[in-house]
Amino acid sequence: MYEETYDIAIVGAGHAGCEAALACARLGLKTIVFTVSVNSIALMPCNPSVGGSSKGHLVRELDALGGEMGKNIDKTFIQSKMLNRSKGPAVHSLRAQADKAEYSKTMRQVLENQENLTIKQAEVSELILNKNNEACGVKIYTGCVYNTKAVVLCTGTYLRARCLCGEAITYTGPNGLQAANHLTESLEKAGIELVRFKTGTPARMDGRTVDYSKMTEQSGDERIVPFSFSTDPELIQKEQVKCYLTYTNEKTHEIIRNNLDRSPIYAGIIEGTGPRYCPSIEDKVVRFADKERHQLFIEPEGLSTNEVYIGGMSSSMPEDVQIEMYRTVPGLENCKIVRNAYAIEYDCINPRQLYPTLEFKKIKNLFAGGQFNGSSGYEEAAAQGLIAGINAAMSVLGKEKIIIDRSQGYIGVLIDDLVTKENHEPYRMMTSRAEYRLLLRQDNADLRLRKTGYEVGLVSKEEYEKVLLKEKQINEEIERLKNTYVGTSKKVTDFLTANNSTGLKSGSSLYELISRPELDYYLIAPIDSERIDLPEDIREQVNINIKYAGYIDKQIRQVEAFKKMEEKKIPNDLDYNEISGLRLEARQKLITYSPVSIGQASRISGVSPADISVLLVYLKTKYSESVIK
Ligand SMILES: Cc1cc2nc3c(=O)[nH]c(=O)nc-3n(C[C@H](O)[C@H](O)[C@H](O)COP(=O)(O)OP(=O)(O)OC[C@H]3O[C@@H](n4cnc5c(N)ncnc54)[C@H](O)[C@@H]3O)c2cc1C
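Above: the input record for the complex with flavin-adenine dinucleotide. Below: its predicted structure, written as tokens.
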């Protein structure tokens, strides 16, 4: 049979696979990426948007590390909005509506023009392991073999996929694309544990049949903020499309209740577990029976199509029920369905089989990213794909793999939750999952992660130096405000009165004034005569760091305590059966999860603080300080 040799093989060119492939090729490794259809590169089979609450954070962090998604959406968005502006900066999140076709086409062009990268349309049917149980290649359905030094699995929603629309079941991937039906068996033979998950999507309507006059218009921001720290904001200010808001009603809910027996979910036909935080409309009607209406977000799929996406109404009801239920919605009375809503089931892994580097614990040089790891969402997928790609490259280059921890980024929270917590459904990121979210804001992702991207080799020296300069300017401006005092002059007194702020009895630093709830860095400009004109992103940092100084300091202290526990490493050959005093449940969980640190061990459910103390004592007696640290 024909054989070829590469450094790394990426199975999948979805949001995870694209990031993994680009990272490996950009780090100089000969990389091949497989997809069942080159037309599905970076396909958006569900919502036509990137970002949103907490997902915007992931995209910014991915961009800071040298990933592609942020740049790609800045080139292909059709509407952009900063969400939660009325709330604190920790939950500000960018969300951009994408032109789906352009998003996929543009990402494909980036991959096609990437040095060291080969794209292959073929179904990978087998994982090849060497005698040391290390990943060393893949075989495709034709029998051809691709020898490599590492493999990254990013198969998304395609493994043994089946799509359900009422009683109609098709054994395809999303959008009728070919499913990947052969690899699962090979992975199970390799001892990989697979689970069955499901997700769903709403119908797409012909926009010409939608009456927008019955809906509420939703516009983008006047001043557009880019996702990528490398995008010049001046270059992306443009006309934007509208989205629309409408609601279901009691008539919609009645039709659904009357047909629950025909829903594959409620008829028990669907085996896979779905995302609680992305429920189908059937689930919403059943679980929130008291709610009179559910919000729907009507989103255009692109500029070169009339298709519109009915956000908030995903379903797997039979087509006749779909037509009836959608037409009860104000504005959709005469709608024509272009694509039916459907649910998709697919194989993915239980991610506890992975280290926080996203390498399999039992199979060296095999990495995994995206929906295949039990997550849900383009952004979650892309973030994991980048980390899995970087670490596969580090493994081939013989360099240290990277772990982003919970105090460094949402990417760290995402991966740690996946590999440490019990996930019985597709994992979706939320700001509430990030305990250090005041430090992990979307506005400072570059200050947190550019250094790591530079050290890995994905961020240029120029980009890194830009951040170092930004950091310096922020600190200098804060120092200046701490050491710049204003007195009780008429100008200052009038200014304070005009801003309903208490007058001064004696001098005060500008820093102190900014800390007042009713004032901020922008407002005090008239009484800050020495101020130089700094870029908006620096002014934003200065303002946030002063306004939230107390909370930020408190979180920094919490992170220091967290880091201490993370630094206490657990040797991966530790035999938990040897440790007396550990409770049975804890022993079993520690064996199953084999945590890399005391910090990770303490987050495993079923492992109590008492168990952690027993473990710490044992490690101290058994291993020298240097091993544990
Ligand atoms: C119907 C549907 C509804 C969804 N609903 C939501 C939702 O409501 N909310 C949400 O957040 N996310 C939703 N998603 C999920 C979202 O699409 C995914 O999270 C995202 O696309 C995952 O990206 P990925 O890169 O992991 O996988 P995908 O984007 O699925 O890409 C997988 C890639 O792997 C390739 N591939 C797979 N197996 C093989 C093989 N053996 N050989 C070669 N190539 C292979 C495919 O060709 C494809 O390129 C939905 C997805 C679908 C399909």
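Notes for the reader.
The mean pLDDT is 96.
The CA atoms of residues 84 and 92 lie 5 Å apart.
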